[in-house]
Design a protein that fits this description.
UDP-N-acetylmuramoyl-L-alanine:D-glutamate ligase; alpha/beta; 14% strand; homotrimer
Chain lengths: 266, 266, 266
């Protein structure tokens, strides 16, 4: 698998033209920031979590993003119902197992979702990806206790087991799909000081999956766009506060030229 | 009905002097950004949604804003209880039927609220306003699938039926009240790329309704202030990220002079 | 008690080096902004509220922050369970009684938490602190109806009664501990126009308490850092929108030199 500047630019243009509806069942912390990132990219976010309406909302969506960052039983039930509707409708599901490994409730929920309603893409940090297969993985809350490199082997195993494209974010982002592993080397260290940029990456995976039928390519495109917008934003920022806004501005203004200049993918 | 520069400036000064408490039962996505907009304007926002306390919280409020953007059964029950308390206390109720038409749960909830506890102001985009009366209206998640112009006729009908001032936001904002229709032509296209600015408009309707006994005039004032702050903010912004902050700064700094220069109302 | 530039700088360095996990059960309005403030300071925030996991999450945390800003029965139950786990593990608990006095549900919940699971630090505005002891205290929603000075006497009483360091924020911040009262005179009036900066102060109390065994000193350090970052941020801001980001940038960049120049503590 390979993602070229042209591929990425075509995907961005498709999102801007179609404005695909991305249905998010996500955590309270990032609802605002991920909705803003989806809008800045050109997608049309919708947030809905009530069991009374998630299936119907999936009906107007082109992708479903499930993020377990602040889960509770009613929300988990809605996640399952929405995911079943998404599978029936054959729209892509993206799962963010936030904090898997930090509590058994999160690990268990992530595993059950993967088993019952297999997602097209799973995006997490190294600790989270490892925790899904390995009960003994260490974690530090919602931040990773391991580098992304150390999770590639287990990411491959997880891909083999569940079929999803596995995206492990870190200094280097790895995307493991049917045709192998892609590395994305974009991004900036200051991004780790803005809450929820991992969740934003997951939401953008949803937008790209809505226009690209290859889940691994969609995930790689999302990670590249995240990293490039982060680099452009960080260069103009004095800290994580200003990075938040410059990141969104960069997403909004992203040009073929920016991609050509910044893209580091292999 | 007419809203002059003087009317609008008087209303803003009244909000800044009285700092009216605006009680919001709103969606998770916009709680932070609408609270910040209310504070920047000079009002005092409070968020409370527990059935255990909403009636008491209404007791210290000067307006109640109900927004169904991320509804669920317990929240809907609290909305009804708060609205009944607001009617008993005779403070204005503003309703934002976010996503009406997107799911039947939202359409039904909006209709039931309007019937059982008629609001003074209903603010929505064209799709949402149409969906309240017309089961066949098209929508696209929480974004409108129609222009505001196309919803004016149905907005008049809705006004006749329920008595509320109907505010339809879009490129031109329409406010339909007892004495006719007001058009507000302020605003900037970049505002559609910031999540929840429609919800912010609704929250500001609450602040203006707290100091202005004429609901239609209050809604027109809120839309004008939104649009003017949006234009001032957008002129200084490179994208929707920076627009968020420049919009709040503009709201905070808004002067009689700004209003005089920017107001486009008829 | 006294907090010197050196003490404060050592505490900040300890937070940046250890990145303590601060577990927050907080309100919907501020989850994003408080997580960002903790990250900017150097701590590692985690938000979790499900009864199914709060005890386990406390197990990986170095401090627990409880904020009743948008409470409801299931959340209150989780607060008690988390606080009991925190006491068993002997990590500090910080309580923010948001809106105590505004509704009896909030006042009652704050009192019960203080009685059943005594926190190390209670931080609130004057109205909230007074409402905990005095059923007749006036409040205005979540904003204070009284100056911090007027609450010092009742703050001392509350300290005597429950043993917690009592932090009363306002134009002057007061921290009442075993060895007396500390006054912090940093801060900027524009901070009152940004939602949730009081909640952010509480969250930072958690970060400082995670590295400083003296709760009153930790609270004074948090208030000083809030105020200094607020002053630096406000000097660069044209309104509360830009203050949000400059505040975070200032937290992130805070140097020994800044502290030396700005600290006003006695």
């Amino acid at each position: 698998m390979n993602v070229t500047t042209n591929d990425l630019w075509s995907a961005i243009r498709a999102i801007r033209e179609k404005a695909p509806v991305v249905h998010n069942i996500t955590n309270y912390v990032v609802m605002n920031s991920t909705a803003n990132a989806l809008l800045a990219l050109g997608a049309s976010p919708v947030m809905a979590h009530a069991e009374e309406e998630v299936e119907e909302m999936v009906g107007i969506a082109s992708a479903l993003v499930i993020n377990i960052g602040t889960l509770s039983p009613t929300w988990v039930r809605a996640m399952f119902r929405a995911a079943e509707a998404a599978r029936a409708k054959k729209i892509p599901i993206v799962l963010d197992p936030v904090g898997a490994g930090a509590t058994s409730y999160r690990t268990k929920t992530a595993r059950e979702l993967i088993r019952a309603v297999p997602p097209e893409i799973i995006r997490g940090n190294a600790s989270e990806i490892m925790a899904i297969l390995d009960a003994g993985a260490r974690t530090k809350g919602v931040d990773s206790a391991a580098s992304s490199d150390s999770a590639v082997a287990i990411g491959r195993e997880l891909h083999t087991e569940c079929g999803a494209a596995i995206c492990i974010s870190g200094e280097t982002d790895y995307v493991i799909g049917k045709t192998g592993v892609v590395k994305v080397r974009n991004g900036h260290i200051m991004m780790t000081r803005v809450t929820g940029l991992g969740c934003t990456a997951t939401a953008l995976c949803g937008a790209f999956a809505a226009v690209n039928p290859d889940p691994a390519a969609a995930a790689a495109e999302a990670m590249a766009v995240m990293g490039i917008a982060g680099e452009i934003g960080a260069a103009r920022s004095e800290g994580p506060g200003s990075l938040q806004l410059h990141f969104l501005d960069a997403l909004y203004r992203l040009s073929a030229d920016d991609i050509d200049r910044y893209l580091k993918i292999e």
